[in-house]
Design a protein that fits this description.
alpha/beta, Rossmann fold, eight-stranded mixed beta sheet
Length: 369
Amino acid sequence: MADLNLQTHVAHFTNPLYLESGRIIEPYDIIYETYGVMNEDKSNVIVVAHALTGSHHAAGTYEDESKPGWWDGLIGSSKAIDTDKFFVICTNVIGSCFGSTGPMSLQRGSSEHYRYKFPVVTIKDMVKAQRILFDQLGIHKVHAIVGGSMGGMQALQFAVHYPNFAKKIVSLASTYATQPWAIAFNKVAQESILNDAEFKHGYYKSEDLSENGLNGMAVGRMAGHISFLSHESMNRKFGREYKRDDGLYELFGKFQVESYLEYNGKNFTKWFDPLAYLYITKAINIYDLSRGFDSLDEALARLKSELYLVSFSGDLLFQPQEMQVLKDRLDEQAYMACDYLEVESDYGHDAFLVELEKFDTYIRSALEE
């Protein structure tokens, strides 16, 4: 078994990044991880794109941590994304809070953070920044781009706007445009953050939040958790179990599901920045593959990559019929080879992170020559 060869890098760019909004970010950094070894002609590169609260740390374990990267079960020696064969790159998107430039980065020549002065970024902007990084690395074409949820949006955006860049596109648990249901859940989280006095209108101290969390954001994250799961997965995980040390007739006594939401919501706010959350959910809300084109069909007409679409039957956030729209449009127009798998799952949206055994063989097969 070969070593994962996990390496972390930071790339610094001094040229302005021109955004879809017409604004610029200058200068900016992108932090990224690599796994495996790039071959001589750079033909074995796979890009992995992360979801809303993910990061560049997709696989392996650092010395000072016990928890591996968020897709560790899928990336590694002899795994579906096989690092014995492929050189894998995962970048942290622009606007996030794990090392790439975002709203809590320092402004150029200043000791002040951007905060609300940071421009709105889109999924297209995130992809553009990654493409500039890859050009700097001398990678002008990749074998595949693989991502789930917001990562799947990035994969599809790459396919439309850089049609000659990737041979294969694998998009899981995603959509062609964010629908009202998902936007509504994001609205709950946004309002919960904005109405928390400790958010201080965006002028909080990060060290305070890392110690105490942010209650409003915790409430918003509870709503997010509900959208990531399903009726069935909650029944299996919690049932109607009550906390053993709480009385049934205590007003604030809790069911196990309530305790779980409270704990995870509160804990989340200690490691994820609230302004980054606002900016990234905005990017997800306005994501639409057809923006800038007369229609979705016109956007899809640009595709030159083999497309592999994966949905999950119990996904309430990005429902299977949203992927089916893409499959149907591509079949009608016969633009490009498109394969579609609907995975039988009652876990919910997070199945793409949890139930790897249900689709890892499909990913492995898709990536084969």
